[in-house]
């Protein structure tokens, strides 16, 4: 599934309910946003069974310092994908873009 960086979990969960689906996600209360939760590691009530939210990230779309939009995943721009996934351990310098991020269980 795709969800934009500014998406709030209450919005995401409402949409998923239409399909009787669920995800490893943050709280649906108090305006928790997808990108901030993910950059914090993505702790969830489902973490012990499914890992952190960041462990379930399939790909991201980021803007490079030169202004180029770029997709990073395990198969494309692997070094950038790794950097985004470990960013939650450092001071956050990742800025979400309005393009959707790709989420899904790794196979």
Task: Please provide a written account of the structure.
By secondary structure, this protein is of the alpha+beta class. It has a single domain, classed as Uridine Diphospho-n-acetylenolpyruvylglucosamine Reductase, domain 3, CATH 3.30.465.10. It is 26% helix and 18% strand. The protein has 4 helices and 4 strands, in the order βαααββαβ. The relative contact order is 0.21. Strand 2 (57-63) and strand 3 form a beta hairpin. It has a 4-stranded antiparallel beta sheet, covered by helices on one side. The model is unreliable at 95-107 (pLDDT under 50). The protein has helices spanning 9-17, 34-39, 47-50, 78-86; strands at residues 2-4, 57-63, 69-73, 100-103. The chain is globular and about 35 Å long.
Question: Tags for this entry?
Answer:
18% strand; disordered C terminus; Uridine Diphospho-n-acetylenolpyruvylglucosamine Reductase, domain 3; 107 residues; alpha+beta; globular; four-stranded antiparallel sheet; 26% helix
């Amino acid at each position: 599934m795709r969800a934009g960086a500014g998406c709030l979990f209450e919005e995401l969960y409402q949409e998923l309910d239409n399909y009787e689906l669920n995800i490893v996600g943050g709280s649906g209360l108090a305006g928790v946003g997808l990108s901030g939760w993910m950059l914090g590691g993505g702790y969830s009530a489902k973490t012990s069974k499914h890992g952190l939210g960041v462990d379930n990230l399939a790909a991201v779309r980021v803007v490079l310092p030169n202004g180029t939009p770029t997709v990073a995943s395990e198969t494309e721009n692997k070094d950038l994908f790794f950097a985004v996934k470990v960013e939650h351990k450092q001071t956050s310098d990742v800025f979400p873009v309005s393009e959707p991020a790709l989420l899904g269980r790794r196979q």
